[in-house]
Amino acid sequence: MPDDALIAVKPELAQGARVDAARHRTMTAEAIRDPEGFWREEAKRIAWMTPPTKIKNTSFEGDVSIRWFEDGVLNASVSCLDRHLETRGDQVAIIWEGDDPNSDAKVTYRELHERVCRMANAIKALGVKKGDRVTLYLPMIVEAAVAMLACARVGAVHSIVFGGFSPDSLSSRIQDCDSTLLITADQGRRGGRTVPLKTNADEALKSCPTVKNVLVVRNTGNAVPMQEGRDIWCHEACAAASADCPPEPMNAEDPLFILYTSGSTGKPKGVLHTTGGYMVWASYTHELVFDYRPGEVYWCTADVGWVTGHTYIVYGPLANGATTLMFEGVPNWPGIDRCWQVVDKHQVNIFYTAPTAIRSLMREGEAPVRKWSRQSLRVLGSVGEPINPEAWMWYYRVVGDERCPIVDTWWQTETGGILISPLPGAVDQKPGSATLPLPGVQPALVDGEGNLLEGATEGNLVILDSWPGQMRTVYKDHERFIQTYFSTFPGKYFSGDGARRDADGYYWITGRVDDVLNVSGHRMGTAEIESALVAHPKVAEAAVVGMPHELKGQGIYCYVTLKTGEEPSDALKKELVAWVRKEIGPIAAPDAIQWAPGLPKTRSGKIMRRILRKIAANETDSLGDTSTLADPTVVQDLIGNRVG
Ligand code: 6R9
């Protein structure tokens, strides 16, 4: 697909759109000319107890300080619930679609408000107060949203751990933020299988002395062990609690949540988002990017364990009074047409998913899609990794019948919400391009030395100035925040991504330029997988790189050096795959393991990952300079024994 393949905005979408092309231009100009005035206005989209008078106070220099709306007072749950009661109390807030196609539920704003207030009082009764951390380890059930908003209501900071993570991953995330309460469920359901959440939690809690109580949601109803004095059934606690819970007044810069995400080094870091700026950003981007119109049904297929679930299943849609669909299952179960069946069943207007899902559905052909009407669909979205033009075109042509625009949304856990994306009624699309920044976002490309690059070019993607939804710090480690995001190119936020910009100013994200993998849209640090591997008693050393993978985008390729005396075998490979699954979770399972008697190291002992990436990708004729290696012969051995 050539760069200039433009798919123009459809007139019927520009009509009545929240933002059309002209408005897009004025907003973009205004947000730069007068950020204070622009964001003072946009801040009105959420509910304040005390509206802010101070708007922007941010610096990317020195100690890096980011403060938005800093004298405003609010509670996020009020924007998502209370203020809708009068106008849309009986409108459905959440449509829940179970893993089992015969189970679903609808929850109105009034019901959701009551459930949140009850759970808020229940966790208060357990001693949780403003500023305390609460870890959530839940399946995709309504209680996940209820628990998030209940934490927000009492001013507690939630930290959600994806239900697919292992006990070890859960315990390290609890330990890092010293949670006093864990909210989990007996079990989860996914694709017809059960996920042993409570059993995993029990295992994790053996090393988490700060956790005093566990609130357990009864979900599958199967028997699970309950520890006397510590574990409490959620439905019993909520039934006993009052349905009246005044929202805790929070400063705009008080924390709303922590979410752990992988970086290029060390343990996952606690990305901290605060209340005012994040809520404004969630509402602003959800409305603009999806051109959300009142009454529409909106479905984001992410899990609440990822940032996409936070911003675009819960906070953004609910702040905007939308009907948001929460799906417990997986896109290909019980049949490959499950998504389209759900679209027809609930008359979904906006559908937001990941390229990896699109690629795996595409492989099954058009028939399973064509079987369903999909006439309700109006806008399609993509997030999590670069979408290749072939998958883009299939999504556009087959799923959307060439009627629905595709919003390819680029953003990160750190950015809180979408930064670069077309707007359906305003920006012409190019298959494979995230297109243009949202009004108020100033991306730029820099070379390796940090010099700004002009015009059509390729480089490192940075953001020049703050936006309200930006993360504020790494929880308990501001130094790491500065180091990770502001030290590579001082004075600029570095995303870790590379991008190309074409002559029309459109951005084409090329992927991570650091040691972070993106496997099926899930972020993983190579360092985390390496440390899981070397924790195995037979492994001496490991180096992990990404390799191209048809469905997952990237696969996990591991070079493993065994301890002296250990024999390589297929059985040991299987054991290592199982080991990593157990240590981190199934999403980290290696796709390929290659035995490596030696690794290519520089004389100072640094592993040259560039070479390992080339070998994994089978691009061995372009290895580049290997003269600085301590022992260049290891490279030939690795090439000769490449796996796959
Ligand atoms: C929201 C989310 C962030 C990383 C990011 C980038 C990749 C996300 C993308 C995309 C190309 C897109 N990414 N959206 N790459 N086009 N539309 O995914 O957050 O889990 O923190 O991952 O995902 O590499 O840096 P997170």
UniProtKB/TrEMBL annotation:
Superkingdom assignment: Bacteria
Names of the cofactor(s): Mg(2+)
Coiled coil: none
Keyword Repressor recorded: no
Gene3D superfamilies: 3.30.300.30, N-terminal domain of ligase-like (3.40.50.12780)
Domain AMP-dependent synthetase/ligase: 82-463
Record-given protein name: Acetyl-coenzyme A synthetase
The species this protein was found in: Teichococcus aestuarii
Name of encoding gene: acs
